[in-house]
Design goal:
Blueprint (H helix, E strand, L loop, with lengths): L3 H8 L8 E5 L6 H4 L6 E6 L2 H8 L6 E5 L12 E7 L6 H11 L1 E12 L7 H4 L8 E6 L2 E7 L13 E8 L2 E8 L10 H8 L8 E5 L5 H9 L4 E6 L2 H13 L5 E4 L10 E6 L8 H17 E12 L4 H9 L3 E5 L3 E7 L4
Parallel strand pairs: 1-2, 1-4, 2-3, 4-5, 10-11, 10-13, 11-12, 13-14
Antiparallel strand pairs: 5-7, 6-7, 8-9, 14-16, 15-16
Helix pairs in contact: 9-10
Length: 348
């Protein structure tokens, strides 16, 4: 099933007929594969690892699928007849995507932008740099808008440092340098949940530790500040978050393994610690399901003396799930918005 933006693009397939197409920031469907009914070749870059997994099973000699904040080095100079951008949920990311698209278009190459009416796409005029022609609305369908523009002159070379903000962050473990890539949520101060977590870190943390949903790497950097001997693995599904985490670690002269994972699916082995401010913040059914799977998998992935500590919104129904999979619920700290849950495996 195609998302509404993808359905709107299919309606406008005449614009990329027989083109060599690059699709950026695509959604959780197989539009890029169906695009081959019209286009000659398609290269697809996902910034969401789940979206990448959805499409990558369709990869073939005419469809190349990648995950990351940009194409691999081998395609750094690749040029395309058309680039399609799905308007991002984080509006500031659009500027980055527009400059990235320009690196891969020949002069007069075609840019297509699709987005949901209520998702900010109507502001595309103001967001488009002057090396493109003014975007022209081509279609309004499936509650989405489709715009077409053309690259009129060479764009500045993309430098990731132009899209990163670095700032000092005070934590209970000391001052850290945080690097935040555009599109990654950050308040430039310690959010309430993470502050509660870092203020009550377990003192018996050792060995191999997992930072689940690492974001910009705040928790990992704080853990390593407190105990440089830890071996930490940082996972996220967001390419910009993973890049932010890598840059944060480098800025603090720290090292950890940073990689994408869909839940625990790309993780191997067991951990002595799982520490997280997990990225499930609303009360939606799907969010609750993900949270349940997270607790269930955590219980399986802890070593015999393993420590598990997470912070979560008070209204999320963690207690029952934790009791089911860990045997009992320990709330070690809380405030008016968050609860801090702790568990230690105590069996051999």
């Amino acid at each position: 099933m195609l998302t509404n933006p993808s359905q709107a693009l299919i309606r406008n397939s005449k614009y990329f007929q027989q083109h060599n197409v690059l699709v950026l920031n695509y959604e959780a469907d197989t539009f890029a594969h169906q695009c081959l009914e019209f286009a000659d070749n398609v290269t697809a870059l996902a910034l969401d690892f789940n979206h990448h997994l959805t499409l990558s099973s369709c990869a073939n000699e005419k469809l190349q699928c990648y995950f990351g904040h940009q194409l691999p080095e081998s395609l750094a100079d690749a040029k395309f007849d058309s680039v399609i951008i799905y308007f991002p949920k984080a509006k500031p990311l659009m500027g980055y995507l527009l400059q990235l698209a320009a690196q891969h278009l020949n002069i007069d190459g075609q840019l297509m932008i699709v987005g949901e009416n209520k998702g900010g796409v109507k502001s595309i005029d103001k967001l488009t740099p002057d090396y493109y022609s003014t975007p022209i609305k081509q279609d309004n369908a499936r509650h989405c808008l489709v715009y077409v523009s053309y690259l009129t002159q060479a764009a500045p070379t993309l430098s990731i440092s132009d899209w990163v903000s670095q700032y000092s962050l005070e934590t209970p473990q000391g001052t850290l340098q945080i690097c935040n890539t555009v599109g990654v949520f950050s308040e430039k101060r310690l959010d309430q949940g993470t502050e509660l977590l870092l203020s009550h870190l377990p003192d018996n943390l050792r060995g191999r530790v997992l930072d689940f949903g690492c974001g910009a790497g705040v928790i990992t950097a704080a853990l390593l500040k407190a105990n440089p001997e830890l071996t930490i693995e940082c996972i996220d599904i967001n390419a910009m978050a993973l890049l932010s985490c890598e840059l944060t670690l480098a800025a603090n002269s720290m090292q950890a393994k940073v990689y994408p994972s869909d839940g625990f699916n790309q993780i191997s082995g067991k951990f002595d610690g799982i520490i997280s401010n997990p990225p499930f913040h609303d009360g939606l059914t799907s969010t609750t399901d993900i949270a349940t799977q997270f607790v269930q998998q955590s219980a399986i992935r802890l070593t015999s003396q393993g420590v598990w500590q997470i912070v979560a919104n008070r209204h999320l129904p963690y207690s029952e799930t934790i009791a089911t999979h860990f045997g009992k619920v320990n709330v070690v700290a809380e405030n008016n918005k968050y609860k801090l849950y702790f568990h230690q495996h105590l069996y051999q």
